[in-house]
Amino acid sequence: MLLKSFTSSNRLLSVPRPSSRKVAGLTPSSKCRANASEDGRSLLGDIPYTAVSAISSIGLLETSYLTQVKLFGAPLVCPSNGCEEILSSSYSYIFGLPLSLFGMLTYGGVAALAAWASQKREEVHQDSGPLELADKGLMAGASVLASCSAVLIYILKTEFYGESCSWCYLSASLSSTLFILVIGGLLGSKRLRAAAMPGAGAFVLGLAVLFTGFADVGQSNAEISELAYYKPDVTSESSKRAISLAQRLKDSGAKMYGAFWCSHCFDQKQTFGKKAMTDFPYVECFPTGWRRGERIADVCEAAGVRAFPTWVINGRTVEGDLSLDALEQELGMPP
């Protein structure tokens, strides 16, 4: 009886043998993916290294082109009105070197590092060290690009009111996308904590370098806080075609919105000539002069003016100075 009781209790305490049956839907590889965050993977997946490398390569091409323009005097192609003035200003240099050169080096480093990390991705389960190192570098690179773009867009909006710069907006879009992809790919993982310090340091470093390098530029620009209104003197001769076109524009209700200090507006007036400008549908957006922080005239704001000059022809808004051919086309005149 005692022996029977012992063997019965022994069966109750015995450790069950591992089952050789597979649980449906749960394989070793799927279990690893389910616990990805414990292995250093993001809860949202991972950094899309290939996409990061591709976007950085676009930034590399853009900044390489702008650097070539600066260093070798290559012609600058501006998709929008105003980028020539912005990209040739004092803000386009830092410590005596083209700002685009630093962008080129940073984009190039991020592109190469992301391409290398993409090849190393398959080794993450054996050794996550290489990817953690890449994450730190990518976080630092994306952070410094994002911080610099934020400062430059702020300068564009405050120091170059009414001007547009397609190259600047492109770079800002690329750097913002890179930052979102990198931080989003690490969100919720241990690797984010490891990469946070280099990223924060690079962000602050980017701001410090720009503010230090632009200190003299900001002081010189701060001296100009007001411009008294003056009427630019149009000196070119008007052709019969220009005079006729000016009258047609006026009769159609077209308007050209501009600013007295805008060089592109003056160029547009010179295209028509002195006589055509005597009865021209021009609207001045700063009729009492320019003062820092002052808004444009109500009539210009109501027309949605964001750059100078701005044409409104047949209900359509067109930015930039236009040729006579382009204006005739906007009016619907036969070629």
From TrEMBL:
SUPFAM superfamilies (UniProt xref): Thioredoxin-like
Transmembrane parts of this sequence: 94-117, 137-156, 168-188, 194-215
Polar residues bias locations: 1-12
GO cellular component annotations of the record: membrane
Coiled-coil region list: none
Protein name: Vitamin K epoxide reductase domain-containing protein
Primary location class: membrane
Region (Disordered): 1-31
Entry's family note: Belongs to the VKOR family.
Membrane topology annotation: Multi-pass membrane protein
Entry's localization field: Membrane
Domain Vitamin K epoxide reductase: 45-186
Keywords (A to Z) from UniProt: Disulfide bond, Membrane, Oxidoreductase, Quinone, Redox-active center, Transmembrane, Transmembrane helix
GO MF entries: oxidoreductase activity; quinone binding
Top-level division of the source organism's lineage: Eukaryota
Pfam families assigned to the protein according to its UniProt record, in alphabetical order: VKOR
